[in-house]
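Record now logged underneath.
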Amino acid sequence: MLNDIYNKRIIELAGNIPRLGRLPDPDASATAHSKLCGSTVKIDLKMDGPVVTDFAHDVKACALGQASSSIMASHVVGSTANELRELRETVRRMLKENGSPPEGKWADIALLEPVRDYKARHASTMLTFDAVVDAIGQIEAKAKQPASAQG
């Protein structure tokens, strides 16, 4: 039942999203959009090597997109590129392949586990994870360019 996915904790997360806004000088920005529901998440990311040092986002999404963005914003700073790539895959497997939710600092994502039964809600739930991994890829690609090409 849809009430299972829109529980009190999801609504609390959606209503209290940290790090809203945009960064003035991000290393990369990325946007993820769900054509199905119209939800959009724009993120700005700063990194020092493989570690996220700052994050902001503009979230125009349903409660599930807002809740996943809230969880991301709460824990992303201090996370590594590899950790965040693995997180996206873990959440994707949780939704699409009945995989286990993440543990540790990302354990709140287990609140989104009931979404697996609602395929139409998967895209909005994944937006923040997709955008963060996109931005990491942009930053890594820039770092591999010769200094003269970055100008």
About this structure: DSSP finds five helices and three strands in the chain. The first strand starts at residue 28 and ends at 33.
